[in-house]
């Protein structure tokens, strides 16, 4: 864990909240989630509170069904929209390796890193149900094939982000040269289901490599910068974090769902939401109660993980409590420090900027 920052805190900002009935309790028209104002306000509140990064969930199909069926703006679009409206918080859309062309995925994330001046991250998605893949005319993959696809897309994206060396863009007005072609490289990537010649159409991201977050269930701990782990209680989270580090994870974040005491006690609010729609367990640690009890829970997790991704049940209700009570208490205890304007997400997380794989062998054209 970083001695500089204590726990890193991520906020998942999907729709009106993590609970499928969140739209019923948000206090705003359901269609508001399709407007820029909702995304902007959540990102601004999260940044002002001192969250390290905000994640944007996504899926090829709606996140819920029946009366709770909800649409989404595409995650990369949401992240890009707030990239120039923020200056400190990391931005991490979910992009699925099974339904997004790898070259376009890498380009989109590189563009986000440029737009945010080095604050982009990627939550690796691997949608693999029949309904999800029917959207692109594909069929679910076996476990071994899915893991290969995930590793191939991560490897291809990392190679493409290196396909332009850091100093490939010359912009020499006197000679009219925009770039040094000797520092732009073909990656010649061959995967199990696709090949990529390259190079990327976008210069190397400001961070060198966009920060990659992946669930431990994807079994790619050796390729991700941050592994997301789940468990139904603290002991299970600690065990999952230990397994992730043994598998090669450099950093580990715990997934925690939260329902907090606000104008209404958390338990009664959750019961009312459950009357409308049950909230199935995703295997995550779920905190229902006071802000002080959540702070204590995060203190306990801090011994095992580098960070926590919080999933508020209802953003309009739970995010203000997090911003006004939880994060200040953690900061006062020395367990959290807000990112600073001008820092890249990598520097905030204490991750080194990777050396370009092509730099040592490049041939520069004078």
Task: Record keyword descriptors for this entry.
about 375 residues, 10 helices, eight-stranded parallel β-barrel, disordered C terminus, TIM Barrel, two-stranded antiparallel ribbon, 13 strands, alpha/beta
The ordered string of helix (H) and strand (E) elements is EHEHEHEHHEEEEEEHEHEHEHH
Q: What is the C-alpha radius of gyration, as a whole number of Å?
A: 21 Å
Give the strand order of the largest sheet, numbering strands 1, 2, ... along the chain: 1-2-3-4-9-10-11-13
- Look at the structure and give the CATH class: Alpha Beta
Cα shape: globular
CATH homologous superfamily (4th level) name: Luciferase-like domain
Helix percent reads 25-40%
Number of domains: 1
CATH fold annotation: TIM Barrel
Strand content: 15-25%
Tell me about this structure:
33% of the residues lie in helices and 17% in strands. The protein is built from ten helices and 13 strands. The chain has helices at residues 36-49, 75-83, 102-115, 130-134, 143-161, 234-246, 266-276, 291-301, 315-332, 345-349, and strands spanning 8-12, 53-56, 90-96, 121-125, 169-172, 177-179, 189-190, 195-196, 211-215, 226-229, 251-260, 285-289, 307-312. The strands form three sheets. The chain has an eight-stranded parallel beta barrel, surrounded by seven helices. A hairpin with a 4-residue loop joins strand 7 and strand 8 (195-196). It is globular and about 65 Å long. It holds the Pfam family Bac_luciferase.
């Amino acid at each position: 864990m970083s001695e500089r920052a204590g726990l890193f805190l991520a906020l998942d900002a999907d729709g009106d909240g993590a609970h499928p009935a969140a739209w019923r309790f948000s206090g705003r028209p359901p269609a508001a989630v399709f407007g820029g104002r909702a995304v902007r306000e959540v990102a601004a509140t999260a940044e002002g509170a001192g969250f390290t990064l905000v994640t944007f969930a996504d899926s090829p199909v709606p996140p819920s069904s029946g009366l709770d069926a909800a649409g989404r703006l595409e995650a990369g679009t949401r992240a890009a929209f707030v990239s120039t409206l923020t200056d400190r918080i990391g931005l991490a859309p979910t992009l699925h390796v099974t339904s997004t062309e790898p070259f376009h995925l890498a380009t989109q994330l590189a563009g986000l890193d440029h737009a945010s001046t080095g604050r982009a991250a990627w939550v690796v998605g691997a949608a693999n149900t029949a309904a999800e893949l029917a959207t692109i005319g594909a069929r679910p993959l076996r476990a071994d094939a899915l893991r290969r696809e995930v590793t191939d897309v991560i490897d291809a994206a990392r190679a493409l982000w290196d396909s332009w060396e850091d100093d490939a863009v010359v912009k020499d007005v006197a000679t009219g040269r925009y770039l040094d072609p000797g520092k732009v490289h073909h990656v010649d990537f061959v995967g199990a289901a696709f090949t990529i010649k390259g190079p990327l159409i976008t210069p190397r991201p400001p961070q060198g490599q966009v920060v990659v977050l992946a669930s431990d269930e994807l079994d790619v701990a050796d390729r991700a910068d941050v592994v997301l782990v789940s468990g139904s209680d603290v002991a299970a989270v600690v065990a999952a974090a230990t397994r992730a580090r043994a598998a090669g994870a450099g950093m580990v974040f715990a997934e925690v769902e939260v329902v907090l005491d606000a104008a209404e006690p958390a338990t009664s609010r959750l019961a009312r939401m459950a009357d409308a729609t049950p909230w199935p367990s995703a295997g995550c640690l779920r905190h229902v109660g006071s802000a002080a009890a959540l702070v204590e829970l995060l203190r306990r997790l801090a011994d095992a993980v580098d960070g926590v991704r919080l999933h508020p049940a209802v953003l309009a209700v739970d995010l203000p409590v997090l911003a006004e009570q939880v994060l200040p208490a953690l900061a006062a205890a020395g367990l959290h420090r807000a990112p600073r304007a001008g820092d890249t997400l990598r520097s905030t997380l204490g991750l080194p900027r990777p050396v370009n794989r092509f730099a040592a062998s490049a041939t520069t054209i004078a």
